[in-house]
Amino acid sequence: xxxxxxxxxxxxxxxxxxxxxxxxxxxxxxxxxxxxxxxxxxxxxxxxxxxxxxxxxxxxxxxxxxxxxxxxxxxxxxxxxxxxxxxxxxxxxxxxxxxxxxxxxxxxxxxxxxxxxxxxxxxxxxxxxxxxxxxxxxxxxxxxxxxxxxxxxxxxxx
Length: 158
Hints:
- The protein is α/β, with parallel strands linked by helices and 158 residues long.
- 46% of the residues lie in helices and 19% in strands.
- It has helices spanning 11-26, 42-46, 51-59, 68-77, 104-125, 136-145, and strands spanning 3-8, 31-34, 60-63, 88-91, 128-133, 148-153.
- Strand 4, helix 5 and strand 5 form a beta-alpha-beta unit.
């Protein structure tokens, strides 16, 4: 069963959840962070300076795409590499890139390809995905594609 968590909210909410949730829940597993929002700060975690923090940072693999095409390439690359069973893949944002740069149809087809790839990875490699989003319409498309989707939505005041 494909497992995916969607973080629906703004940049600060997504940063807080990624740092706290991934540290608390994935610290013993391999973690791939595709940080399209450029929000991960290892120094924030290293202030803890515990053995658990060091282990977490050693298992963390970070990639920072700057364009939508680079994001697509990072996701496709995950199908070609060895991932430990139940590895965690976190994409800080799926929809943060400038919408005016590419044709709407092209972007939609690329998103569809990326979602198919994510589904393939979750099924074949038993990985879990966490994806940050602002676009509720895209969230609906993701829900249709995956059997199990958990939504964490930013509450006002966070």
